[in-house]
Structures are given as structure tokens and as C-alpha cells.
Amino acid sequence: MRKDWDTYFMDIAFMVSTRSRCPRRHVGTVLVQGKKLLGTAYNGAPMGVQDCSEAGCMIVEEFEPAPAGSTEMIKKQRCIRTIHAEQNLLLFTDRVDREGSVVYVTDQPCWTCANMLANSGIAEIVYYRPYPKDYDKVAALMEQRGLIFRKLDNYTPPADTEVQDGS
User: Fold this and answer.
1) Domain 5-45+84-151 has CATH 3.40.140.10
2) What are phi and psi of 59, to 5 degrees?
3) 84 is in an annotated binding site
């Protein structure tokens, strides 16, 4: 049985993610115009710099208010050594290729990546794994910007492409 286009391109994004050397999360993304693959990227350290598997993660802690007006603060830990897959995709593709295109990404973009994608010329983001910490504000941004933002349901990643989330 032939795979549908969403499954095909998400499978490629998951295969691209296997290039990542991040011990916490492997993320892959692909840029598609029509049915033509225009670029791929994954998360990792800048070229020529030791990555997290060699030098360890550079973890920072941040605090942000809990949603729904709560007075509690949520502690977030993130690695700042790694350039996100979406950021790498934008760095290594041309704006003209991105105009009206679709980005398939293994994980829902974080707030920073969503901001960058919203300003990049793309028309749609398709993701598989949710990122609950940023979901509400990212979804609101995509709606405000008029971009299609959808989770790929009923999808199973290719075997041996998923890494357990260590964050």
C-alpha cells in the first residue's frame, strides 16, 4: 500500500532526526513545496563545534508563569548548545523556496522557532510530537498569523528513529 504524502514527508523528517547527536531529543524537519522536497535539517551544535555527546549539554534553567493566571512559576530546563532543527532549516534554505511551502517537523516547534517560522514565508507546519510547554501560545501565534498548524494524528514513526525524551 502506498503511503500518503503526510506520512511520506514525516517519515523523512524522522529519518533526518537520526543525524542529531543530542542525548535529550532528536528533531528533524523537511521543507516541501508542492510535493517537492527542498531541504532538510536536524538539531545540533554549530558546525565545527563539539556537540552535546562530546562536550555535554549546556543546560540553563528558566522560570515562566504557569498558564491560566496562576501565581506559580514553571521551571524549564533547556540546552543552549544546540541549534534547533527549524532554525537550521531556515539557515540553509532560501526565502524564495519557503514562500507558501510546508514544514514537516517531528516535534511541535518551541516558541522561538514558531516565531521564526511565522516570519519565514511558509504556509503550514505539520508536526507529530506535541510540546505542551509552548502549545497554547504557539497555536495562538499560528492562528493570528493565518498559518495552518496541525498535528499529524494516526501516525507511527519509522522503527529505530525515536529517542526517549531526556528533558
Assistant:
1) yes
2) -85, 130
3) yes
Q: Does 113 show up as a binding residue in the annotation?
A: yes
- For 49-94, the pLDDT digits (tens) are 888 888 887 888 887 777 676 778 777 777 777 899 999 999 999 9
Rounded distance, CA 76 to CA 78, Å? 7
Give the contacts of 1 (CB within 8 A, at least 6 positions apart): none
Q: Please calculate the CA angle 9-12-13 and round it to the nearest 5 degrees.
A: 90
Q: Is 162 a catalytic residue?
A: no
Annotated catalytic residue, options 86, 99, 124, 143:
86
Q: Is the pLDDT of residue 166 over 60?
A: no
CB atoms inside a 10 Å sphere around CB 99: 12
Q: Is 110 assigned a ligand-binding role in the annotation?
A: yes
- Report the amino acid identity of residue 79: C
